[in-house]
Structures are given as C-alpha cells and as structure tokens.
Amino acid sequence: MLSLKKTNPTDWLVSQNKYHSKKTNLKAKTISVTAGKGGVGKTSVAVKMAKVLSDSGYKVLLLDCDTNLSNTVVKLGLPITNYFYDLISAQKDFDECLHKDGRLHILAGCNGSIDLFKKSLEIDRVIIDILVNHEKDYDYIILDCPAGITKETLTLNAYSDYRFVIVTPDKSSVTDSYSLIKILNKEFGVNENHLLINKTSSDAQYQRMIKTLSETVETFLKCRLHILGRISKEELPDDQFDRVLLHQENNSLHKNFVNIIKKFTDEIECNSTVQTMHYEGHNEQDVRLTV
C-alpha cells in the first residue's frame, strides 16, 4: 500500500495528477458515477455502464466505493463477501478479490463488516491507491461513489478523469447536485462534469432541467456540463426495473443506454487528452434553482 500522508486534499490531488498525467496513454480512463442525493439510480447506471463498455470490447473494472454498504453485488445477484477488507488488510491479492465476467471485473465492497468498521482508514486514499496500482490493466475504471458531499466522495470525484452526475426531476436532487458541482469546483478546481438525467416523464421536463442546471452552473461557477441524455421514467418497481435495465437487451432502455455510452466514448476518443484541472477560487454566491 502507498504511504498516505495527511496533506491538504487539493495539494495531494495536484501532485497525484501531475505524476499520472505523464502516463496518459497507458492508464485507464476513470469515471466516477456520483450524485448529490441517494435514490437517483446511480448504482444502476454505474453497473449498466460497466456492462455496456465491456460488451463493446473494453476491459472494465467496476469498483464499489460505498465500501461497507455494497449495492453492486445486490444489483447483480452476486454473493456478499468481505473481500474488500481482505484486500486492504493484505489477506488476499487484488486478483483474488475480483468477480470476473469476461472483460468486466468487479471489486465490491463489504456489507456491514465489523472489521472494516473498526479499521481506521482514509478510504478515499485507499481506493486511489488501488487505482494507481491497477490503472494500466484496464481501459475503463468505473467508480460507483456514495451519494453526497463527504470529503471521501469529493476526493474520488476530483481524482477521476470524468464525472457522471446523476440527477432526477426531484427538486432536492437538482439542488444537491448543484451543491456537489459547486464544492468540486471551489475546493478542487473541477470545471467540467457530465450530466445524465434519470426518471424523466417527458422530453419537455428533460429540456427544462438541462437548461436550468447548465445555465446556473455556467453563470455562477463558470463551469461546463456535458449533456449525456436522459433515461425515461418507467412505471415499474425498482427490482423489476433493474432486471429490465441490467439483464435484458431487447428493449428501448438498453438501446437508449448504449447510445448514451457511445456518445460519451466518441466524445472522449476524439479528445483523448485527460482534462487539466485548474485550481482557482470563485466568489461565494447563493443560488436558487427552479425546476
């Protein structure tokens, strides 16, 4: 494991990115899937993205960053294990802790591990240590980040090459997503994010949301949102929706998601240079969002 010194998060991220920018052509593209609040479909999006990318021929690592409340295994029907704890306590090698499905590898978290709970860790730096050690083994690494604006989540988002911010029409989701984007900008200098709108009931609602968020972010933060698209609201229970989204391919949900991922991969492959993060402050302003 790397020695993780207690330093200012911004300074530490600058040093990490300067070092790894020299290896741009060798390292995986890291994507954090994130949200201001829970319940917006973030884990389902992360799992589906990983499956679509691996089906497209890319080697993918999906890493569940909610390290003691792992939902990826629940979504995929995989056995619950303590492999994450075994990995960080050096009881198992990285390869032993993976669930492998062809080109898709999954490193799940634990679920209510007392040992992990008692262990004193800076979990964001532990995860970045894993990324540093294995970024040359994959084309894409997908981070399913916990919702919210904890230091750990913000650090993982800032370290990632790209961020998928998942938002629903719920007003608290919109407001919390703006807060996430604002703190990433002011504390870590992150100026670009990708936006995916989930559970929209109409195209008019979708257009209204992207207009509101894009204009607010650009006006008050001088940031840019790359619009990925939308996932329509389905009148299905959550478990049934996940079965349709994650395990069936002959439906409009799957085809729409494939188009969203293709749009993203086309975009970044046309501009393969990893973004340079500019660390500069902005004046604090209060913003009211209307959806």
Would you give an account of this structure?
- With 291 residues, the protein is an alpha/beta fold.
- It has a single domain, classed as Rossmann fold.
- The chain has 11 helices and 8 strands.
- The protein has an 8-stranded mixed beta sheet, with helices on both faces.
- Helix 6 (123-134) packs parallel to helix 7.
Quick take:
This protein is 44% helix and 16% strand. With 291 residues, the chain is α/β, with parallel strands linked by helices.
What descriptors fit this protein?
8 strands, alpha/beta, 291 residues, 8-stranded mixed sheet, globular, disordered N terminus, 11 helices, Rossmann fold, 44% helix
What is the topology?
Elements (H helix, E strand, L loop, with lengths): L8 H12 L8 E6 L7 H14 L4 E5 L7 H5 L6 H6 L10 E3 L2 E4 L6 H5 L4 H12 L5 E5 L6 H9 L2 E6 L3 H18 L3 E9 L2 H19 L2 E9 L5 H10 L4 H19 L21
Parallel strand pairs: 1-5, 1-6, 2-4, 2-5, 6-7, 7-8
Antiparallel strand pairs: 3-4
Helix pairs in contact: 6-7, 7-8, 8-9
User: Architecture, CATH level 2?
Assistant: 3-Layer(aba) Sandwich
- Could you describe the largest sheet, including whether it forms a barrel? 8 strands, mixed
Output the helix-strand order: HEHEHHEEHHEHEHEHEHH
Mean pLDDT across every amino acid position: 85
Which range best describes the helical content: under 10%, 10-25%, 25-40%, 40-55%, 55-70% or over 70%? Answer: 40-55%
Q: CATH top level?
A: Alpha Beta
Reading side by side through the largest sheet, how are the strands ordered? 3-4-2-5-1-6-7-8
What's the CATH H-level homologous superfamily?
P-loop containing nucleotide triphosphate hydrolases
Unreliable stretches, pLDDT < 50, 5 or more residues?
1-7, 273-288
CATH topology: Rossmann fold
Summing up helix and strand content along with how strands pair, one would put the structural category as alpha/beta
Q: How far from one another are the termini?
A: 45 Å
Number of domains: 1
Number of separate strands: 8
Strand content: 15-25%
Report the C-alpha radius of gyration, rounded. Answer: 18 Å
Shape: globular
